Structure to design on (1452 residues):
């Protein structure tokens, strides 16, 4: 499993399993001179915690971040920032009954096939807890972007069929609900729907939308490291994500050139008449809002009986007991936001050498 | 524009502009001992050529591949394979009228913002001709995969609203039409639709689907380099792609866990009851078909008048004359297939060191 | 300070400062199925500890390794292995007098120039304690290599002018001395010399030699990632190393082709008549012993007064007090060995895709 | 043979074999806005040509560079710069007698072991002609550095035992001799020595020194990508290089801390009293001249009979006929200079994100 690193310039290397001693991240390439407090990290980590809502696992996860290196007197030094979260009570359970069973929708089977063995304790490295390192890294990237005037809005756009379909219905001041869905009415409908599914021992999916404001023009590299290409990878690298859309996304397939092209005019500054492209042209930011979406699958862990096999090729029906989220979407919002922040910052750094003029500004 | 390379183990580095002297690719990491003829490359390049159909540009593009290095007596030596395609008549035109205009839906504006200048001749590096290097590289990756028993089917799934919605309606023996759409009836409907759009000086989008058969289990790295994450990047790195779906894709957002999980049984081999996941679990291939889709936007070049600005912030209406494809989808099929082949092969190589047993098989 | 990672396939990412909370490493790309105990790591870490000899700092460094992830029941799982060593008493000292002074031979000035600030506590990231992560990573690489039958001998070859000049004088069974110098007589002479320097408040340098036995042929990539090129980088990346030699090294400059070429014959196996090349031809291992050397500079921290400036450009004379090694060489032996093991293993993995035949052995 | 790329930010990807159709390089990451003429490239390539001196092969190598992409009207566009040199008369010879013989000192045996086959025509990829791509890339890096005020002096320091030992004896105005050795007297002695060796059908080695002036402080990353570590790799990646020294190099092993530390004072600017370190502290440039050396082995091709084996393990004595340089050193000077320029520029780009202040200068 090489490849626990992400980013070329601002790089996170994450480690840790669900029920190991700890999880963490090493952040490499953070510029020196950034004020950074452990509270900056904790604030982000808290957003991915179950919280207490009934739509999330009732497990108690303290998840206290410790910064082990890379800062002096709460200022970054340019050295790698190591952040660790200790797992609590990680040895308390008996896993003998699931150690050899392949849960449907989980990576149990594929890990065994790839490695010849796996850490079966709570999903091991394939657990959602793997994202702790991403979120800690995202918190740092986010803070750097804010210093440059860039702002990210990320939220649940839909749960099942309950969706915000008109951008005007996104009310960020109504986002303080257990679903992180910025529309009170739709959030209530979605909560009803989730509760119904919970009664049926089932789980639901949804869509997360992310809008990034005030991105300078010129970010993204024109061939393979397009801003949208790197965002797509960032999103699909998150466990439960199965689809990615930039701007109009799949709707472009049914659109026409005359509708889809974003026309331009000038009014003291460049003005685009529309934003079908999601803020990129040829993979490079054009100064408009960056807009993308990720589709999240229903939680694979459900307590209904499911048919599957074990490591000895015996067929069995399993009931996955324990506390599991009936929906991953709300807790994944901060993961999406974190990966977006890292991806954008990484390309923003790449772009610093695009012109001779930039080199001459520094040297 | 660093980042004209793709792939960590099997790496393509592409170069060249639409109307420069030549375009090409350097393929690094191709194992020694593969039979390789220039015809292997040419066959792939011919699939992306306009061809002569009326749904594609009437430009004449010879696009003859030359292998400049990396083989001896038509066998690869392990050394980098350099492939070049010379541009014909590349200096014949006067670009003075478009050199400073920002065409809607094109990367003209963003290149100027990023680099302070751009190669305006035929779109320069942001032209679709940039994919020549990808396709030449894909031809080699494809051949290696075939030697390992892996087979790729890639085709147009929809043009506008005319779509193959049931997998049973994919008839690969009916794919020999100008749209590369494997269903004669739907292809005819789609062609009518395109012609209507052409009359209106407009262009259309569509969806490409790719199915990869016989992929070994265990391919894909479980955190950032998931098979689906890397495919997503590969797809969004193609100029006109705006969306990516793995397996059920965005439909998972409206699905339930009990429907979406692929149950398993054993019948002399592992059997999955369904393939909502598209052949991956936790980013790792599970032995099922790999299934994904890419959404392609309508050709941005349309001959209708469009409003835009020039490099001096003057507003103008432009008519893009010249010969342009009314639809990119059919010619992009081989690009999607090429990027898929490279991505899969690259991860297949990564996976060779996943187990101590593998090291002991080689050493 | 991006670039705290080393290795493409077997990758270490190190973090931590001399007097921060902890130091550590994340090892990515370790194959699954390797037995690994914390004692494997500790044994290597203990070799870089001051030990108690009078030729090393009298600081007490416990340096207890904890494995935080990546193993289950003492077997590697293919997931990243995070290893941490906590710093003891890290906050005990007053640094106000050296925080702004640039010690000659140290990186104080350059860190300040590069980052605008630095962690002045004990040298921060530029301290020799930075190598803890390398050595922990090297312990794992070393164990994998041993499983493949590869053996590394690494030792002090010279201290000052006291050198083993004839390979026959390398007696590995005489290496158990404070200098890790495998010749009792020369070791005693060198110890006398060091003591004399200590009396003069001075420090000394030396040369480390490394010999790797039983390396398969074919390891190393023929252009930029030559085995010797990567070893050279590995060595010069160690703080005090100022020179690198492969095989005959600088002596080749005064040699002739007829002397320097290693002739071959066959005697049931390929036999080289000599090993001037150090076991590589064209950057690729030829089956002979890999032989290289690294030159280590004298410890820059000496208690004699030295002239320098501070951060305000004021000139001062400083006396560096405290406990410092009069010679770095003996403790650097295990660092050289660790970096060599990582470098070799990394290229050994690279080589697994050199031939189509190898792919077919795995798939 | 993946790894035909060098550099993370300013990247060269080289390709081509000695007697294939062509050799070349793709330069990725060159900033837009640099004036670049093919003469800039040619001037560097001409420096590596045999030239006509009797100390170099009498082969006629035209080596005309063509820029195929990446510039418009002789200004770089930020797109990859592809440069090609066609091989002339590449198919004219019969290789049947050497195709299966392993020449001592050459990579014939190791290529066969690694790949199972090799391009035996003129050494294939292991030929010195492989450096054509490096030199073309170096020419571009060099031009960028010059724009930033950085200047590189590179020259032959010794041939055999005939060496410039005192830096004061380096007279750059006396460098216009066939050996590129900047001291007329020593150059003449060395030429006599080479001629004597030629009479004995033998070859000689030497040392190249490189001094880089006016490097800003702060270049080089403090752990693995130290400026000296990357230079060491760059040098050892050149075919015939067997040793590398930074500053005092191997002499530090016999030095003492009080001698080796470079003391500092301030006189309107920071002044170092000496430069034993070669311009780096902790891997980071300190504003002094960067000084390093590379040891070059004698040409392995000599016409004396040598004992070796063939691919069928038969022992034979071979005479390598044809025209070969009796000494590689003079022609390698421009290769060393090129690799140094690329290495320095690459790290100079890396350093642009070291501080938050730098990000704010660009955005």
């Amino acid at each position: 499993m090489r490849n626990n690193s992400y980013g070329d310039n601002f790089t996170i290397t994450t480690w840790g399993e669900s029920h190991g001693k700890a999880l963490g991240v090493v952040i490499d390439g953070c510029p020196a001179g950034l004020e950074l407090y452990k509270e900056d990290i904790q604030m982000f980590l808290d957003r991915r915690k179950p919280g207490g809502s009934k739509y999330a696992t009732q497990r108690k996860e303290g998840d206290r971040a410790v910064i082990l290196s890379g800062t002096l007197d709460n200022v970054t030094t340019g050295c790698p920032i190591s952040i660790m979260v200790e797992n609590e009570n990680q040895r308390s359970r008996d896993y003998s009954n699931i150690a050899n069973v392949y849960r449907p929708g989980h990576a149990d089977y594929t890990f065994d096939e790839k490695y010849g063995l796996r850490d079966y304790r709570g999903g091991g490295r394939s657990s959602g807890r793997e994202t702790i390192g991403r979120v800690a890294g995202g918190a740092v990237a986010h803070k750097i972007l804010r210093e440059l005037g860039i702002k990210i809005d990320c939220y649940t756009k839909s749960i099942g069929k309950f969706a915000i379909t008109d951008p005007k219905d996104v009310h960020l001041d109504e986002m303080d609900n257990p679903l992180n869905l910025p529309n009170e009415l739709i959030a209530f409908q979605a909560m009803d729907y989730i509760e119904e599914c919970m009664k049926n021992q089932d789980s639901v999916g949804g869509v997360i939308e992310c809008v990034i404001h005030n991105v300078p023009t010129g970010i993204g590299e024109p061939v393979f490291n397009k801003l949208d290409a790197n965002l797509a990878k960032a999103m699909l690298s998150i466990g439960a994500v199965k689809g990615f859309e930039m701007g109009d996304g799949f709707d472009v397939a049914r659109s026409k050139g005359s509708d889809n092209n974003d026309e331009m005019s000038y009014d003291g500054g460049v003005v685009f008449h529309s934003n079908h492209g999601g803020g990129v042209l040829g993979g490079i930011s054009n100064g408009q809002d960056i807009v993308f979406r990720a589709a999240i699958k229903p939680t694979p862990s459900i307590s209904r009986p499911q048919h599957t096999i074990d490591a000895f090729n015996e067929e069995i029906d399993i009931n996955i007991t324990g506390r599991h989220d009936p929906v991953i979407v709300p807790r994944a919002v901060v993961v999406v936001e974190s990966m977006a922040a890292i991806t954008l910052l990484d390309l923003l750094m790449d772009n610093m050498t695009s012109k001779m003029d930039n080199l001459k500004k520094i040297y």
Notes: The first helix of chain C runs from residue 38 to 47. The two ends of chain C are 39 Å apart (CA to CA). The mean pLDDT of chain C is 94. Chain C has one domain: 8-362.
